[in-house]
Every structure is written in structure tokens, then in C-alpha cells.
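PROTEIN SPECIFICATION:
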Amino acid sequence: MSRIIRLACIDSPALPLFDKSPDGVSRAGYEPDAAALVFDRIGAEIQWVMLPWEEMIPAVRRGDADAVWCGQGITPERSALVDFSRPYAVFNETLIVRADDPARAPEQLAGYRIGAIAGSTNMKLAETFPGAELVSFGASDDVFSEMIEATRSGEVDGFVDDDVVMIPLGKEDPDFVEAFTVETRNRWGVGVAPGNDALRTEIDDALGAVIADGSLERVWREWMPLLAFPLGDG
């Protein structure tokens, strides 16, 4: 029997990172393709464990999943709960506003209602905007669409998310524009249960190999041609 690794994730449309699963089993996007490269190298089959956002890390800690591979910026708070691999992605953060809004810098946001996911690195960035009123969104399976529609309707004046999902929105939807991007360089990693050094080391070694041979960069460029590949072999 082949080895199976259970990876916690959400089932949500957030391309190019990942799309909603068509069958509850398979997934498409940069993250699933990057995971496939790594676990093919390890010699293991992936089983996706689809959960609400707030249940992913607890599932790893309980042993109901072997790791979480789903948009996990490596923060001190998360690092206290799981042990992270080396990064498989690095992203900055972008503020999107309506197309007719003139704001192009944090200093222009006094009195603005700015949305972000509660407890996220995006909310931490929004907290630095002088005079902005912050609006928290719950981490539902469709929170990105909820923030888009809240901005479109005027419920909020803009929202912060990672550049990977925001740059296409700002370029492709005429209702919105990219106000600015902050070079936060958030590193995303794979979280394993505390002390599971064997699996973490396997993931680190496999990530190093797919970075060194160029295969991870090829997957990155397939899904995210607008963003420069941020990882070297160091």
C-alpha cells in the first residue's frame, strides 16, 4: 500500500492559489500542484482533508491531518501551534479600492472603512493605516468574494489581501483598482504537528530539490505569471 499524507485545506475558490474542488477529492491551483511536486518527490500520495479555515491547525494538532498546506503565512502565533517547513511561496499584500477612488497610499485612508480577514496578516497590515476604520471578515469558505462584494456595494471602501489574488482582480475587473502594494514578504509554509521533525525534514528536503531543479518555478509561472518567482535554492 502506498504511503498517504493527509493535508488540511479549505475548499474555496481562490485562484490562482486553489479552486473549489469539483468532487471533494481533487484540487487545482498553485498550492495543489506545488504539493504534488513535493510529495511525488517524497513518494507519498496526497489525501486532501477539507475543513473550515479555523479547523485546519487544530486538525493537525489532534492528528486528524498530517500537515496543513493552505495559505499559512509563517507568523509567531501560528509557529506556536505547528512547526513550519521552509517556504514554498512568498507574497506581499495589496489594498484594492473601487475604480473611482483616488487613494494610492496608506496616509490617504483616514476615515476609510478597510476590510480584512480577522486574525490574518492582512488585518495586521490594515492596523497600520493611519485613521482607517477596520472591518473584520470571518474566514468563511467564500470570504474573498464577500470582501469583493462589500467593496463593490460601498459597505467598505477597500480591503487588504495577498497580492497573488488581488493583482488579477485589479487588472481584470473594471470596478476595482489596485491602490498600492506593501512589500511585506510574507513567507508561506507547510505546518506539521509540533515535534514531527521527520515529516518536516522530508518536506524541507523535497522543497529544496524542486526549487533547485526548477520544477517549482515552472509551476509558479504557470499559475502566477504576473509575479516574479521569489525562491532561490538557499
Notes: Residues 167 and 178 are 7 Å apart (CA to CA).
